[in-house]
Design brief:
10 strands; Large ribosomal subunit protein bL21m; 4-stranded antiparallel sheet; structural constituent of ribosome; alpha+beta; bL21-like; ribonucleoprotein; single chain; 28% strand; ribosomal protein; elongated
């Protein structure tokens, strides 16, 4: 018992140098230390005005009239490809006049992505009503995949050059089909729906089909 009392007296006389555990430290002191370490944000423009230092103008960007901008515009314009008509193959120049001399020529034209094999004088009934046309209008059909006669056929890739032919169509008018009535009903369902439809179509007549002269083409 005397040894325990002596040890306690010695511990009371010596100064305490050990720190308490970290979980016993106050959290307020750590937060206050972090707040004191942050510096105030100062605007450099406001600081120069308070100090009486005149502000210097910023460097202006080069205008469009500067030589650097002109050189950049010239480079961009020269880099853009120019659309030039493709040159004709020598075989096309040689055989196209023979094709033009033969009668009974035909052509496969494309109207709104759908092909129609026609000759001069044929009537075409489009499966839709073409918007923006009235009876009597003349249309230039410039998309064709085939142009040929009895002995020769010019195949396009995918379309024939529009400088080699002229195909025109006259809008005759529009016609409508009889009224359709369709009853929609499901099994084990007492409700039914009646749908009425009456489609309209545009009628074209091929008024001109000729092969152009290739002497004036490049």
């Amino acid at each position: 018992m005397s040894r325990a009392l002596l040890r306690s007296v010695l511990e009371l006389r010596t100064p305490i140098t050990r720190l308490p555990p970290s979980f016993l430290l106050p959290i307020r002191t750590a937060g206050a230390r972090c707040l004191h370490q942050t510096s105030q944000i100062v605007d450099p423009v406001q600081q120069q005005l308070e100090a009486g230092i005149p502000l210097q103008p910023q460097a202006q960007k080069p205008s469009s009239s500067s030589p650097i901008a002109e050189a950049a515009s010239n480079i961009s314009s020269s880099s853009q490809p120019t659309t030039q008509p493709a040159k004709l193959h020598p075989s096309v120049r040689q055989l196209l006049p023979i094709l033009a001399a033969q009668p009974g020529r035909y052509i496969t034209i494309h109207i709104h992505g759908k092909p129609y094999l026609v000759t001069e004088g044929d009537s075409v009934r489009l499966p839709f009503k073409m918007p923006g046309v009235t009876p009597g209008d003349v249309l230039r059909l410039n998309r064709a995949t085939n142009l040929g006669s009895r002995d020769y056929t010019l195949q396009g890739s995918p379309y024939v050059d529009e400088r080699l032919f002229e195909c025109r169509a006259v809008v005759i008018g529009t016609e409508a089909e009889p009224m359709r009535t369709l009853v929609k009903k499901k099994r084990r369902c007492r409700r039914k729906k009646t749908v009425h439809s009456k489609h309209r179509f545009t009628i074209l007549r091929i008024s001109e089909l000729k092969v152009c002269d290739v002497n004036g083409l490049d």
